[in-house]
Amino acid sequence: MSPEINPWSSQPSLEIEKTFSEFGISPIGDAIAKLPEVPYFIRRGIVLGHRDYQVIADAIHNRRQFHILTGFMPSGHPHLGHLMVMKEVVWHVRQGGNGYITIADREAHAVRGLSWEKCNEFGKEYLSCLYALGFEGQTYFQSRNDRLKDLAFEAATKVNFSELAAIYGFGADTDLAHADSVITQVADILYPQIDREPAPTLVPVGIDQDPHIRLTRGIAHKMRMFTIEERDGYISVRSKNAPEEALEAVRKAFPHAKKYAGHVDIKGAQCTNVAATVREIERAHGGFAFYTPSSTYHIFMPGLTGGKMSSSIPESIISFYEPEATVRKKVMSGITGGRMTLEEQKRLGGEPEKCSIFLLNLFHMVTDDTELAEIRRKCTAGEVTCGQCKKDTAERVVAFQKDFREKMDACADMIRV
Ligand code: TRP
Q1: Residues 288 and 198 sit within 8 Å (Cβ to Cβ)
Q2: Which residue, by CA, sits nearest to atom 11 of ligand 1?
Q3: Ligand 1 centroid to residue 230 C-alpha, Å
Q4: Cα(244) to centroid of ligand 1, in Å?
């Protein structure tokens, strides 16, 4: 499997900004002007890229309906590396979004070979983390959602194997269930729009999931009956596979509309109004009328061993039910941005950007911005040794774990599967 961004590898993507611009991901700063408050994960540069996030910021600003969905592959215990997207989801639910969580047990079974029992067990743990963080909304396991699977089948009519080869590097030896788990994820992302109604949908993910986002955006578009194009002085509504009656309904809806073979041209109307009316007509004629989903991208919290936090590297992660002693040991042996000698540390200061311990604090352990700034200052000024900083951080992690575990336990009976 070759392509540069590949959802199933545990290699971190290094040159993140270069990667972003190559793939057409925009800097998040361009899209947040309308947000009533900027959440800490954007303020601190953790969430830094997006596709069409302005549509979501607009919906929040105007209190219009939007969906927020993400998914987790239950291939191991949830750990600190999963917390970021969870918090993004919870924050957007609080801003008025309809929350959805999918447990990707089909993917875990097909790609990682996990038994359904294990998927179930791990999946429930993910859900209790989410509830512990205050999630409200719908949750489901892919394998037990029939409407999802029907939607996946429908979406599959719009993809062929050469597309999968180009996006994921799939080849003749790729098994069918792996391809099936990809189209199931596409269906996940579109699911809120059939479960409720078509509306802008945000999918917060790590950059490794972008191939799925690109594929889904393409499919969402292909599943529309119409495309709407702004031309010089008029708007052209073009049928892709709309029934003739639907095209006729578009013509009737606008006083200055002219119908041609396969398209209706409309003068003197606003594009947003045309888009809304066309969407209603599409739905009335049995179409999906999907909005193209939006996404945000966060950087990964590095694992304590330097690379990505990944269940496949046990020393890199901290999971929530881990005993205190191993949590302390992992933090104390984490890779830092410290210098070779104490003398150098005092003279040159540490390098927090390169430090897995600092990033642990930045991501989750220190919620107060002033306190975090002070930790950074002391580090770069050489006023604190890595040993001391690790000790302080280990205390924070242990306290966090204890509190979080209590919350998870208290939420266990909210899980209905
Ligand atoms: N593939 C994702 C992972 O490996 C899990 C997932 C399944 C997902 N469906 C999704 C993520 C929908 C975002 C949206 O973790």
Answers
A1: yes
A2: 71
A3: 34
A4: 37
